[in-house]
Amino acid sequence: MRTVSKYVFLDLLKNRSILVYTAVLAVLSFTLLGLDGGSAKGLLSLLNITLLFVPVITTLFSAIYFFNSLEFIELLLSQPVKRTRILLSEYGGMALSLSAAFVVGVGFPLTVMLPVTASFVLIITGVLLTFIFTSLGLLIFVLSRDKTRGIGAAIIVSLFFTLLFDGLMMAFIFTFSDYPIDRAVVAMVGLNPVDLARILMLLQLDVAVLMGYSGALFKEFLGSSTGSLYAVGCLGLWTVVPLWLALRIFRRKDL
Amino acid sequence: MIRIEKLTKSFGKFKALDGIDLSLEKGQAVSLLGPNGSGKTTLIKSILGLVIPEKGDIIINGQPIRNHPSYRAHIGYMPQIGRYPDNMTIEQVLHMIKDIRQGQSVLDEELYVSFGLDKIKHKKMRTLSGGTRQKVSACIAFLFSPGIYILDEPTAGLDPVANEILKDKIAAECARGKLVLITSHVLSDLDGLTSHIIYLQDGKLMFHQTIEQLQEQTGETKLNTIIAKILTHADRKQICVS
Questions:
Q1: What angle do CA B147, B188, B201 make, to 5 degrees?
Q2: DSSP structure string for A92-141
């Protein structure tokens, strides 16, 4: 259903929140890259911005937008089309417009000021994260009964992956430090898309100091290239699985 | 055109629809009445496939509707609350719906013109008043001249002029042999428009009769008084039973 995606995309391009999001990302990118004269340090700061901003903004914004278009989705569903198609095209329009915002806000300054491979990896990582957290936003929308609870869930989910998960991971590592938990830690990283994105990026930059315990283990066990592939694979799953779940649940949902 | 057999739907412990049997035919204008929470919206949404029934069947034009979205090409739906993407213009919304329903070449744009929407087609949906959005919803429902119209509180929020235009349109479509299913709390709006009344209470079908039958039974002519009389009568009966 390209039609619905196209119109959702056009609607969102004129959305004020999306414009502000793009502008903030652009200002941050230009200042950070300008400060260090285009070094890898600027790229790292930009990575941290991406890892914090993208999940929180994407999950919250997409969930709120989906809840606000509930009546419109109902109207679309009263047309002779399949439910899954409508939901998929809503998802497509949303993920594409948020990705466009990221590419313009972060990608454009990067290609102008620091055109190296690592920059492009950062752009791709940001876009992947956008798709992942839009999926999660959609899943929250499909699962929640009302808007207030849905937005609450969106806040909790995004904070869980950006902040809480690391704390839990630390607790886990400290508690079981006497046991051989290396492999378990590598597997656990796969449970958090934000960590995966961070490691994927740091494998490119080769700054082992900043990787932390889990990142170092990751590199030791999987090496740079296998590690990157594993991370990208996991990120792919993180996009597809919540989306598939959302579509499945939505097929039988009462509106 | 629409046949409903033993339709049951509950939300948790609450039974929204309880074994509804109905048969609606061409050329009828059916009013769906009942107090708040009596299952009117659930019934409409079941017909549209927005609510998935637990038990029972809905058969439209001889085909059960389960898992066949194509039957909705025969339905024009006007929702109670019309909300549209903020930054889309009226023109874009209509284009989008037309694109979705590709293949239906005959378009009925009478309401679009008579509501004066063609003059404000570049306005964004966000800037429109509730009544104007209702007009857009009505426009979409009638755009493809389907065989069945489902109108949920169509006249709520419309100004008197638009109200008359819409009522004339409904009457005209009915005369052309279409089936119209309306819910409304404004009974005076339904006067002279409807041929049949369906009354729901607590998810059960109380009665489904023609206006003439009801007028005969109660000796009244106005819809308001007919319904009031039947209800007070029913209440008294309930009190006697309990």
A1: 75
A2: HHHHHHHHHHHIIIIIHHHHHH--SHHHHHHHHHHHHHHHHHHHHHHHHH
**End-to-end Cα distance, chain A:** 21
* Boundaries of every domain in chain A: 2-251
Measured between beta carbons, the chain A residues lying within 8 angstroms of B7 are none
By the 10 Å C-beta count (0-12 exposed, 13-18 middle, 19+ buried), B171 is classed as middle
Mean pLDDT, residues B81-106: 86
CA distance A36 to A31: 9
Domain ranges of chain B: 2-241
Beta strands in B112-233 (DSSP E): 148-152, 179-183, 196-201, 204-210
ipTM: 0.88
Place of tokens 């196209």: A6
Calpha distance A224→A230 (Å, rounded): 10
Q: Which residue has the higher pLDDT, A204 or B77?
A: B77
pLDDT tens digit sequence for B186-203: 787 788 788 888 988 888
Identify each DSSP E strand in chain B by its residue range. Answer: 2-11, 14-24, 29-33, 55-60, 63-64, 75-78, 148-152, 179-183, 196-201, 204-210
Look up tokens 């109670």; give the residue.
Answer: B80
Q: Do B96 and A77 touch (CB under 8 A)?
A: no
**Chain B CA closest to residue A16:** B87
pLDDT tens-digit series, residues B26-56: 888 899 988 888 888 899 999 999 998 888 8
Spatial separation of the C-alpha atoms in residues A166 and A170, rounded to whole Å: 6
3-class secondary-structure state, position A204: helix
* B51, B75, B137: residue with CB nearest A254: B51
Residue B242, pLDDT > 60, answer no
pLDDT in tens, A209-238: 666 677 777 777 777 788 888 889 999 999
User: Under DSSP, is residue A82 helix (H, G, I), strand (E, B) or coil?
Assistant: coil
Determine contact, residues B158/B128, Cβ cutoff 8 Å. no
CATH architecture of B2-241: 3-Layer(aba) Sandwich (3.40)
Query: What number is the average pLDDT over the span A97-119?
Result: 91
pLDDT at A141: 95
Helices (H), A144-192: 147-159, 165-175, 182-189
B48 vs A: CB within 8 A: yes
Distances (CA, A) of B83 to A97, B24, B105, B135, B160: 21, 29, 26, 12, 22
Q: How far is B233 from chain A (nearest CA, A)?
A: 35
